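Subject: Sanity check before I submit

Could someone independently write out the structure tokens for this chain? I want to compare against mine line by line before I put it in a report. The sequence has 520 residues.
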Amino acid sequence: MKTYWKVDVQLGNAENEIVVNEFLLNLKRENKSAKTIMNYKYILQEFFKDRKVSYLLITSNDINKLIEERRKIRTKNTIRSYLVGLSSFYGFCVEKQYMETKPIRNEKSERYWETNISISNDENQKRLNSFLLSLKEANKSKSTIVNIREFLQSFLETREEKISALTSDDIKDYLEVHKINCMKEKVNIYISYMRSFINFCVEKCHLEKSPNIQTIFEGILKKDEVPEKYWVVISLPNQNNEEVLNEYLLSLKVSNYSKGTILGRRNFLQSFFREEEELFSNLKSNEILEKIKKVSKGKKEKTISNYISDLKCFYAFCIEEDYLESSPIKSRWFPRLPQPVPKYLEKEEIVKVQQRMEKENIRNRALFEFLLTSGCRIGEVHNIERENIDFEKRTVLVLGKGRKYRQVHFSVKCSLLLERYLDSRKDNESALFVTLNGDFHRLSADTMRKLLVKLGKEVGLRGTLHPHRLRHTFATDLLAKGAELSFIADELGHSNLMTTQVYARLPKREIISMYRKYMG
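---
Independent answer below. Compare away.
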């Protein structure tokens, strides 16, 4: 099992073998189950074993020929697995920019009522597909079915136990995780998805008896509805643990940490100490590590790293407050995560988007240019007031993380677009960007995101055009022009220069340009 993420037969082409192994290793780093990885491995081994030609030269006809041959001897589900495996592999190649397009059609759009990932337990996958098909037969819309599928796939993907073993705690824990950073309406939607699926399983006798779902749902909806209490943990078996945890979470609130950050830490720490009768200061390192392993089962490495970080911060607070002398959390526990590289727009991609923006209304043009040339976070843009703009200096006062204000700059072109936009408005709304439907409310961050995603799709960008990609583009452009990291940190509102160091890992654009000139 040590090398289950590597092919165990020699492929007909050495280049194919290297890329297939890279793909499988990437699945392991994403914390996919061993079963899922081995399924992909067997599919790719069978496909590439006797092929001398490079994966780059394989056509859709080659793949279709294989599928037609398999249809005569394999089940429908097996054929589906082949398509998913090959599509995932070639999707990885496109993402890594080894090739521009996949030589395989996207089955997802044609069979949206079926799962499009491999779920750890085959029986669970069959049950979920059966449920999704029932929705299609009940004439539910495609978008509804896709949304339900994505949510339930996420719930079942790494679950080894059968649906018949589903407990109230399983449902409660998962829904509470998804409550973090969600509006109440979104939580209600998640609950309705889960309720429908559970009722279907009970009706089809996949569950012998239903968990007490009504009590679970009511508890989740009532919990934290009073905003001023979202930093409070409740009902821990050890009263001292509860008091110190609440003292720690209150310190985060006083220090202006975001609600999402506090909720995330509170939910994990409450879960971690929920059944712990021992005082937090008496827990030994090995005991804490065992509990981390238990709650981290089936989680991605990034999630595990966050769990350890939450505990480390809590125990650091305890040291500062003289509750204990040294932290039981060890740095060696942190998993080694791949170093992230920010995704930014190339110059030709920026030009392509700007050309498309010429057809947009003046508000959308001003919004795009502001995001591109100011480096602001989407939440910061959402909160900007008209009165805080200084057109003479081309600056604006924004409220960033930690409730800290800072001045940001924007370009001449952006200034002209903003002035035209504001001159065109006849409302008294204080917000910089407002809706266009006549009621002139502050434009939501979610609407801004959707505008950019739609724009990126229309111009054919690789990857999603999200607001943070424009922020990365802004920072990368400053770096390419020779700006110091400290200046970039000030513009982005980074309180810690280490956060800005991520841009130092990017290759210089001149290097990329020279490589492409000589190597293609």
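---
OP: Matches mine. For the report I'm noting this point. The domain at 347-519 is CATH 1.10.443.10 (hpI Integrase; Chain A).
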